[in-house]
Amino acid sequence: MTIHDFDIYVDAFKDENNIEITSTDDGTDIADTDALYVYLYNNGVTRQAVQADLDEGCDSPYIDGYLTYLDDLDKPSETPSKSLDDYEVAEDGEVIIDDWSSLVGGGSDSDVSVGSSGMVDGSQDLHDAVKSGEAQRTLEEIQSRHPDIDM
């Protein structure tokens, strides 16, 4: 009986999860196969490696499920996404975005406005600090305490 790399990874998963390793596993030893598939994926088990094991006669009861898992990862998202080409560009080169919700994962434009209402515009404070010399003094103070920082 040939031991394939896929079988070795499945056995490692079983070992790490305190599942008895048997030679008679018919696909029912691992209750949470999604956890197995994530484990295999995170451990670098590629479609090419699985195909090579299949070509060599690997008959693991989990191999077809893992290939389906990989297929599902390759499918495009159900949510259409826009590229910058889909937006209007003003004469000054600024991109005009009329639907912010498409960029932040759904909802509505009002959700985006409410979500940004807590943001503070500190540009005037920065301008005032630079103009008064406070920013330079703060920078020099930081440099004196941390001479190893390159500024």
Strand order of the largest sheet: 1-2
Mean of residue pLDDT?
78
Q: Span from first to last CA? A: 64 Å
What proportion strand? under 5%
Radius of gyration: 28 Å
Helical region count?
7
Total beta-strand segments: 2
Structural class: mainly alpha
Query: What shape does the CA trace take?
Result: elongated
Low-confidence stretches: 106-116
Which series of helices and strands comes N to C? HHHHEEHHH
Largest sheet, in brief, is: 2 strands, antiparallel
Amount of helix? 40-55%
Detail the topology: elements first, then pairings.
Blueprint: H1 5-16, H2 33-42, H3 47-55, H4 63-74, E1 88-89, E2 95-96, H5 109-116, H6 123-132, H7 134-145
Antiparallel strand pairs: 1-2
Helix pairs in contact: 2-4
Write a concise keyword list for the protein shown above.
single chain, 151 residues, mainly alpha, two-stranded antiparallel sheet, 7 helices, 2 strands, 48% helix
Structural summary, described in words:
The chain has 151 residues and is an all-alpha fold. Among the domains are: 5-74, no CATH class; 121-151, no CATH class. The protein has seven helices and two strands; from the N terminus they run ααααββααα. Strands 1-2 form a two-stranded antiparallel ribbon. Strand 1 (88-89) and strand 2 form a beta hairpin. The longest helix has 12 residues, at 5-16. It starts with a helix and ends in a 6-residue tail after the last helix. Residues 106-116 have low confidence and may be disordered.
Quick structural gist:
The chain has 151 residues and is mainly α. The protein has 7 helices and 2 strands, in the order ααααββααα. It has helices at 5-16, 33-42, 47-55, 63-74, 109-116, 123-132, 134-145; strands at 88-89, 95-96.
